[in-house]
Structure formats: C-alpha cells, structure tokens
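Input set for joint prediction.
Command: fold jointly, output tokens.
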Amino acid sequence: MFAPVEMSELDIFVPEGDIDAVAEAVARLGVVHLQDPGSLGRWGEGVGTEWLGRVSTYAAQERRTDELLDRMGIECVARSWEGRLAPADDLVAIEEELQEIEEEVHALIEREAELKREIRHWELVAKSLSSLAPLSVSISDLRQLELLHLIAGTIPTENLARLEASLFRIPYAIIPVHRYDGHALVFGFCAHEDAPILERALESAFLEPLALPDELGGTPREALAEAYERLGGAQTEVALLQEQCQERFQHLGPRLQSMLTRVRRDHALADARARFGRTGEAYLIAGWAPKERVAELKSAVEEASEGRATVEERPARGMDGRARVPTLLKNSKLFTPLEALVTTYGTPGYREIDPTPILGITFVLMFGSMFGDLGHGLVLVALGALVALRVIPQLASMAQMGTVLIGCGLSSALFGLLYGSVFGMEELIPHVLSPMHDMLILLGAAVGLGVLVLNIGFFCRLASAARSRTILEAIFDRNGIVGLLLYWCLLALLVLPMVAGSLPGWVAGALGMLTLALLFAEPLTNLVTGRRPLVHGSLGMFLVQSFFELFETFIGYASNTLSFVRLGAFAVAHAGLSMVVFILADLVGSGAAGSVLRVLIIVGGNIVVIGFEGLIVAIQTMRLEYYELFGKFFAGEGTPFKPLTLYTV
Amino acid sequence: MVIGLDAVRYAAVNARVRGMRSQLLDRATWRALLTTDDLDSAMVLLRTSVYGQAIAAAEQRGAVSLEQVERHLWGIVARNCQRVMALTGGGNRALLLTWWRHFELENLKAMLRGFDQSMSPERIGGFLIPLGERFTLPWDTLLREHSLGSLIDRLATTRYGSALRAAYPLYQRDRSLFALEIAADIRYYRDLAAAIMRLRGDDGKDARRLLGTRLDMLNILWAFRHRIYYGLSPEEIINYTLWHTIRTDVDLVRDIALGDDPAAILARVWGEEAFDLSFLEDAQSDGEMMLGLELTLHRYWHSLATGAMGGYPFGLGALLGYVVLGELEAQDLVTVLEGKGMGWSHERISEHLIGWEE
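tokens >
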C-alpha cells in the first residue's frame, strides 16, 4: 500500500544454445520487463537488428491470418497451440502453411466469384432478351442488322452522362434497359459507318460488351428460355461450391486459429529478441522483475537452460540506474479499480507514493458529500452491482468501474442519511444537516474537508521525497516542509482571531520567517544540497521572479482551499435540483392523468438528476483529486510495468 | 466575430503548421544541394536535413538506391500530411484524409504494375510508399494475391473495386495498364472533388483554390497527354478525363481533344495574364511543350500555396499551403536526385524545378 511493488534489477546471461528455451521460459512466466537496448552498454552493440525484420514478418503474417479468417467468414479468435517455439525459424514454416491455405482458400473463393459472374452474365442475357422478347425476328437476324450497328453491354452508371457528352460527332442512341449495383445494361445504336467511333467511346466509358452466346438461336423468347436454363445450372453449381467451401473452411478455420496463437507468440519472442544484448556467443536479458517473483524466475531459467544460464539480481535503483525502473502497482482488491483513475493522470514513479488508496478514500468521500441522497445512492449501488457482476454484456469491460460506482453509491447513501434526503424528498427521514437550511455550516465543513485533503497532499509530498531520497529538496518547497508550516500559519491567522479572539505574536513571527524562507527557497535549497551557484542569473531578476512566485503561492493556497467549497455548493445544488423536480410535479393538474404525469415527472426528474448531475459531480471530484491533491505531490512520470509475455488464449 | 472564431479555431493549428513549414529546406540548402558535384554528395547533404531519415530508412533495406530514397521521401511527405490532418476536424479532416489517399492511389498503381510484370510480393513491396500504421488497404494481403485478376477481385469492396473491375476487360484485351490506372485515377479524383465541394465558407474557398486547382491542372494535362502522347479520339479523351472540376468541364476537354492549343486553354481557364507562355514558342516538339506546360502549371500551383501560407492565417488555406509546398518540395528533391544521378549540370536541373528561382 502507498508504494509500488519492490523490483529487482536482473541480468540473465544465457549461452547462445539456450537462448530460445530461456526466452520462452521467461516469456511464459511473464514477470520480466525488458530494458531498452540503448541502456545495455557494450552488450547493446550486439543487439540483433536482424530480429526487427522477423518482427515485421510476424506482424504481416498475423495480419494475413486475420484477413484470411475474415474472408472465410470465420471469427478471428485464436485457438490453443502447444509446441516448441523457434522464432528464428518458425516464420518459414508458418509462411509455407499460410501460403498453402491461402492458395486453397483463394482458389475456392475465385471459383465462387467466377460462377457468380457467370450467373450475373446469364441474368443480364435474360434481361436483354426480355427486352427483345416482343420481337418476332430471330436472334441471327438481330446479329446482322443491315443499316444499324448494335452493341449491348453493361456500363458503370456514373459514366453514362459523360459517355453521352463524348458522342458529339455522330448520331447515336444509348438505351439503358436495366440498372443494378451502380451499373446499367444498355443497347447502343448508330449507323454502320460510325461504328468505330461508338465502339471506342463505349470502350473508354468502360462498357463491358454483352454478347449473346452463339449457341442461343431461334426467337428472343426461345433464347430467353435457354438463358434461364443456363442460369439455373450456374446457380446449382454455385450452391454446391458454397457447400464445399463451408466444409473446407470448417476444417481450415481451426488450423488458422491455432496458427494465430503461434504467430502471436513468435511475434512477442522476436520482439523481445530484438532487445536482448549480445557479445560473442553469450546473450544478456536485462530487465526488472518483482522481487518476490525472482526466485521463481531463477528456477525457470535454470530448468530451461539446464543450469547453464545465470541470473544476477540487484536491488532496483530507481532513476539512478541504467534506465527508469518500471512501476507495478499493488493495491488491495478494494482499491484496484481506482488504479485506472490514477494512471489516467500518470503512472507513479518507482520511488513515488502510489496515491491510489488516498484517491480511493477521498474520491468516494467527496463524491458522496456532493451527491448525498439515500435513494440516489442506492440506485448507484444497484447499477454498480450490475456492472461489476457483468450482468450487462455491453459494459462487461467496465466491470472494475462497477466497484467504484458501488463505493460512490454507498457514500452518497450515507450522506443522504445525514442530509435526510430520499430521492429528493426531505421529509421522509430526519436530517442531521440540511443542505438547503444549513448552507453556511455545509460550506464551512466543505472547506474544512478541503484543508484536511490539502494537508494529506503536503504529507504525501514529504513521504514521496523521503522515498526518493530528495528530502533536502523538499525542505523549502512550496509543497514541502516550509510550505506546510506556512499553510498552517495562514490557517492560524484566519482561525485563531475567530476562536481565541486574538492572534499570538509567535504566529506573525513564524509567518514572516516562513515567507522569507519561501522567497529565498532556491538559494536555500542549493545551499543545503550543496549545489552551486546559489542563484542562477542576476540577483535582481531572481528577486522579481521569487516575489511573483511567492505571490502565486499565497494565491494558490487560498484558491486550493476555497476550491473545496464546491463540495458544499454541489450538495446544495443537488438538493435544489431535486426540489425543482417536485415543484414541476406539483404544477401538473389533479385527476388520474395528472397523477400519472406527476409520477412520470418525479421518476424522469430523478433519472436526469442521477445521470446528469452524477456525471457532473464525478467530473468535479476528479478535478479536485487531480488539481488540488495530485498537484501537491504526484509527478506521474513513471513507466508502467509491461512484462514480456506469451500470448494466451 | 467570424474572424474571432476563426482565430480561436486556427491559432494553435496555424502556429504548429508554421513550425512545420520552417522544416522545409531553406534557400541556402537548396543552393548547396544544386551545386553538389554528384548524386553521392547530394545524398550526404540530404542526410543532414530533415529528409535524412529517408536515406536512413532506405539503408535498412541494404544498399541505398535512388528508388528507395524517393519512396521514403514520399513517405515523409505522407506522414507530414497526416500530422496536419491530426490538427483538424470535421470536413477539413475529411478533405485532408481524401487528399492523403493519393499516396494510397500511388501504391495501388505500383501494385498493379508489379502484378502486371509478375513480380514477387517482396519486390512489389519495395516499390510501395511506406504509409505507416494508417493504411486503409490491406497491403500485406493484397501482395499475396497471385494474379492481377484476383487482386482486382480482392479490391472489390474498396472504393476502387468497381472502377477497376469495369476497366479489367480492357486490360485483358490489350494487356495495357492504361485503362486500369486511369480508372483508378478517375475514381480517386472524383472523391477528392466531392470532398472539396462539401466544404463551405472560407475553408471551401481555400480548398477550391489550392486542391481544386490541382484537379483543374490534372484534367488539362490528362487531356493534352491523351491527345499528344496516346493519340486518343475525342470521345476517348472525354471519357478518360474528369467530367468537371472547379474550372474545367467537358466543353473545355472537348476543345483540347479537337486540337486547341495550350495558350488558348490556359487563357480560358485562368485569364490572359496568368502565365508566362514563352515556353510554347521555345518548344521544339510536342514533348517539350508538354514538359513546359506541366512545369508552368506546377509553378502556378506553388505560387498559390506560397500565397496561402502568407495570406490570412486563420483558415484552412495555410494548412493546405503547407501540404502542397511539402509535396512540391519532395517532387523537386526527386528531380535533383535524378538529375544528379544522370550527371546533369545544376543549371539544367534548375530549369526543371518547381519551387526554385535563381
């Protein structure tokens, strides 16, 4: 709690012959966050750049497998695959298998496309013959018109207007007889001597000629019957082929799904190998692992290499080491869902305080104080339970947030008991503190809570400084020791005259001393940390800058504290909004219809209050957490712990 | 009020784009590049510029070839276009995305050429502009298709599908990629015209001035090329050009097809005084005339882009101006590198540059 998981810095030295097995064992365990090759010193010179090519090949194979499954209409999910991984060589075997399946699938799909084109062809032949059916001439006569040149074919509809505009030199007729899928079946006529011009124009408008097959004879009506027969034949053939495709795809699908797992695993290992250091025939796997898992890792490495690989373990050195130590947060189950809210702001540094538990408590408390209503709170609890228990499939990925919602709901319900409010009705249960009537007390309490939260922020800053061994820098910091004492003095300046009737002289003295300390914070910090020069730049500029910074600090303390007034203000707004719902409900007339409308307004109004105001209150709470609390101590510049892992189904 | 709102919308974006523009090569670098002794020296100089990463990326595939450097140069231009796109939203973003897709179109045409010549997937892959993660076509899978026909089937569901399918019978008959490439071009540039026309207000005016001019230029150049290089009939020329752009229409294309000269056409579209047409008198052949026409139009486009960057700052114009200047700079770099590769003098190379004036 309050600190990320303790890490160990690791150097795993592996002979060349064992590197595949060790890499796989390390990846299977999923506890090592690899170091950047740039930080490996002389070992980094031998980093295998050839692996970058393999990584890109595996990425391409993964995409091709996805595409192939998609074309086969099979869900793109991976299946289990058990086998020994060899990322240096697997890509060849995978490529062969993938190509073999691609060829088979493509052949089937192409044959299906060909048959569908044939069906389309016969449909168009039938359409054109239907247009000619009323004629009693024979097809052969139509093929040999004496004065007219006739062309039939399909053309993209968008090209029709342009085609007609292009035919400005000859008399012609273009007759569309059937439109489908952005195409038109057209008959084009012109005089025989203009035929070359018409044909070139039609070609350039991408007309696909539709020739009546030579075997069709007789009258158009007779040919039409023949065309329908051919159409039926092609439709039967495509149905048979589709059955065959389905059967083959059901066989090939699982193979591809297993291949997907293998490719993804090889991809992960190849990616890792591109980051392993190397000199001669020895490899270096450098990284960090949670201290508590190192023994397990050592034993896995030893087993995979039969004792030939060695693991060197050192305590992680934070920012002073070869690179930034990654941060793995570890919180109780109660607080884990709130980690997402912390990491949205930033990942805590390895030597920083993990603010998740503090956020967990203050978030729930502040939300409840602004959204205090027993009924609304219990609705949030119910909604949170539905989300957390994954009852709503669409929200299953947000299950963790359900827990947060339950916490906020319970807090709202407790504050609702305090405020005596149930679904906006303030007369059902007795209240201890009414937002509408005890407004000043509520606002004062809100500021008091703010002072408490800000003090927590100051102490966290000091704890963070202690963890990162920078306590000297924190002495004269505006959020450090001097800042905290100054804040207390300022509070005393305000509170003591009201409580005790006068201000003790020592408070004024301390205030003056601390103000001076903060004014000269930079040279004083440099003095105690041994850094020189004490002041950067000219003294005049330093004084001007320090004065304005001091001014900003005072303004900051005041605004940070008063910012918490919103806790009370939103509690009042919540009660006010609920009151508006009842005022609106009271405006509707009496009678059966009026009663129904009244219930509808009350229910609808409460839904709006829960949804709309709940969202606003959540945003305000986040604002207080991020700006007023985190701003005091949390840098959030850590690196999240991302261990090398093997894809699991 | 409108200006105030524009200023709010575009102030930060404009500052970013101006920062990006400062990364374009300055005159001193261009002069140094032009006066290098040979291709190797030009590459060494280029390595120290923002385009150095193009050479570094080309090196990753082994020996550096001019072809590889060029495609990585276009990769940088495409990436810069994406960066500008990321700064915008709504219709402006849609327009920039459509504009960005012309890199995709170039890759598609490279792929068609590769399949036509039965090249291996790896070889074809080497001709593609690296477009990063934001690609809209599944290049890996497309490369694995085993024939041009199956490639076109595979593209059926994309924006190019029906256009390529319609042109495929002509390819099968003539074994020429002309019909396929022009079909893909027309498909893409129709989309671009639609994206330009969708924009309203001052942004729409900027889009029509900068990208609309590109469409006008292309349509005129295509019509002249079809007539002069391919000897196509007027009907074919009309069908193989855009139906209408901002300033060109089927009547104009018809007149080009029927033999109007460039001077008359340019005067009709942009007025008598817009261009210095001395190149027409100096041209010894149709080929020289076409080169002059192309260069004149591109220089005009360059001047529009430069004007947009120096004009009203709070609008789309400055963004498009940067995108256009970036593309023309890359085109000039390709000219310099190829000129150096062929041992041309710096004077001769300068004559072919769009954005360089002595």
